[in-house]
Amino acid sequence: MAEKLAPEKRHIFSHNGQTVFEWDQTLEEVNIYIKLPPNVHPKQFYCKIQSKHVEVGIKGNPPYLNHDLTSPVKTDCSFWTLEDDIMHITLQKRDKGQTWSSPIQGQGQLDPYVSDMEQKRLMLQRFQEENPGFDFSQAQFTGNCPDPRTFMGGIRSD
Question: Are 155 and 129 in contact (CB under 8 A)?
Answer without folding.
Answer: no
